[in-house]
Amino acid sequence: MPRIASVIGFPRIGADRELKKAIEGYWKGRRELDEVRSTARELRERHWRIQVGHDIDLIASNDFSYYDRMLDTAILLGAIPERYRRLGLDAEDTLFAMGRGYQGPRGDVTALPMKKWFTTNYHYLVPEIEEPAQIRLNSEKPFEEFTEAKALGLVSKPVLIGPYTFLKLARGPQGGALDYDAGLIDAVASVYVEVLRRFIGLGAQWLQLDEPYLVLDKDEGDMALFRSLYSRILPARTSAHGSLKVLLQTYFGHVGDCYETLALLGFDGIGLDLVEGREGNLSALERYGVSEGTTIFAGVVNGRNIWRNDYAASLGLVDAVGRITPDVAVSTSCSLLHVPFSLEGEDGLGEPVRRHFAFAVEKLGELRRIAELADQDEAGLRADKALAANQSLFDGSRVRRDQAVVERLAALRPSDFTRHPARAERRTIQREELGLPLLPTTTIGSFPQTARVRAERARLRKREIGQEDYDRFIAGRIDSVIAEQERIGLDVLVHGEFERNDMVEYFGQRLKGFLFTRNAWVQSYGTRCVKPPIIWGDVSRPGPMTVRWSSYAQSKTDRMVKGMLTGPVTILNWSWPREDIGRKEQTEQLALAIRDEVEDLEAAGIRIIQIDEAALREKLPLRRSDWHRAYLDWAVPAFRLVHSGVRPGTQIHTHMCYSEFNDIIRDIDAMDADVISFEASRSDLTVLDAIQAAHFETEAGPGVYDIHSPRIPSQEEIEERIGQILHKMDAAKVWINPDCGLKTRGEAETWPSLEHMVAAARYVRARLEGAC
Ligand code: GLN
Ligand code: ZN
């Protein structure tokens, strides 16, 4: 029998983001819901046909979603909180209300919270289960989409988020912890049993249940929960009406710590990620073997990179599994949702470059090829021209190394990663030199990117205006925000970042080594997509990137203007990295490039420089035992490499967009910045306890108001926030700033909010100074 090729999931947004355009058009009242439905149906059909065209055996259905699959699963299980039901909207509008909030004639509710999907840049909605009694089969979506495919002649493999992952990621009433009591487990398992029955009735052969939560470290009781769910669900595979195979699909890591349990449960298929979870999964297979009747789905086509597959390496993996069991199917490593749609239309990349890439559509071809090659004998493989051509992509000739960069990295010494003198000593010097007041006020960097700012950038791109006109416009914006910040009385000013479209692309475009695509969008959340740049070669900085506007801004005021840079770890994490060299080496290359910029800013008279690491936490490995060895041990030193060369009096700031760093607080301190600002206004401020407990040395500005909301906070409420902060932190180390950059806000709320913030800081400052 020819080897089975299985695709875990396919991008749903469309080659030209048709789904995004349809849904957003509907939100703006420009389209009818029926148009959205028919666009969705067309996309599903097109995407299935593409996969059929590539001879994929197990093609997913129900991988489609209007907004998010976790949200769909919540709705499937009836976990719709009362506040959304009460609106009395139809099915799609209820879904959108849960996804993005609702404000209108029927009420005013905020959206469900959103969180990062494991280590990807995709965000899921956090389901809220108010009570087990709510749980029942509540949607026809998976069945309808299966039937839709069947009408096109395709017996698809329906995919669902599994009950264990669903429950582990869901929250209880009002977002509190969920109680996994017997009633809840029973209710959830019953819905899946019902789903199995329905699919047997519809003639499905395989059902894929996604359980990525299995690749995380386990808490006590986790495997008992898993077992009690599946020991109820699996018996429903056979009934008087037929039977169904269940594929337990894992991804984003290995399941070495629970594989034995999975094997004992007797799934028909177990899907293992042999890219991100290679070692752990292979050694578990070797140790525990494979039960009779179980097919191992070897995830060898990487769903998280854009590079061509190395066929020889993939075949080696399939072989390794093949030595343990004869029943091996080949699969993507995870859903292809996380890669761009196709290379078609990327004509800006020449053929010598393009042939190194494989987006979702091209990965289908790779999967088919690997399935075929895996069935060939030695002689067949030796004669295979395609295999030879594939091998030539990995012979090291892709890019010529930049010797200057290679040598600069090789010459690095441990001392290059340490700034002198120590932080406490620098504090004294900086206090003297910078002359800042107690509780200094500042912002995170960007000011509103108004329609006008974006329009001018678009006009420049379309060559409707020249560079000089554009620069004059930017200078005008800077003049205006400098004047405004002075009027309000902020202590440390910023130039506003009007010249930047994005905090990574802006730098990528000014560095050597990056490539940009035209249409390589990937979904980030809801209908939002991002288009990360590609790190193609060794990275270096041909010339200054930010000095001009920072110096210009500084020339307009007697107050200090903060220089504003993106850090190396964030640039790496929000780009497509290379695979021919490691992440550590790429981050160090980036760090040296940013280091040159830091030094140029300093030489130009900028005395405070902020290096944003908004995405540092994002790629923290899923398992705690890998945190340091596989990530922090090089990421944190790379940050230090950026700033270790500055004078003691130059103050280095950093910024992070979250407050979840209780567990890595020592590592954040080890970045050795002088000041850090971070998001805190929406959190419960336990981070302040962590700061206190860890004797955190870095001065810190926990955001005093939420910039994600258009609300204008009152002076009193900010004073109260500052009070809470001072309760836990030494006032001499506290900065006052908003949560994050202001670029997504309007002018109308930005200035009054900042006025209230400065007034609150002044009031508290006066009180403190009066007291001593
Ligand atoms: N300096 C950036 C800004 O203010 C930081 C953005 C971010 O943290 N995501 O926009
Ligand atoms: Zn931020």
Automatic annotation (TrEMBL):
5-methyltetrahydropteroyltri-L-glutamate binds at residues 17-20, 116, 121, 528-529, 574, 618. The keyword Hydrolase does not apply. Binds 2 Zn(2+) ions per subunit. Binds 1 zinc ion per subunit. Gene3D superfamilies: 3.20.20.210. Its EC number is 2.1.1.14. GO terms for molecular function: 5-methyltetrahydropteroyltriglutamate-homocysteine S-methyltransferase activity; zinc ion binding. Its cofactor is Zn(2+). Residues 439-762 form the Cobalamin-independent methionine synthase MetE C-terminal/archaeal domain. The active site is at 708 (proton donor). Catalyzes the transfer of a methyl group from 5-methyltetrahydrofolate to homocysteine resulting in methionine formation. This is 5-methyltetrahydropteroyltriglutamate--homocysteine methyltransferase. The gene is metE.
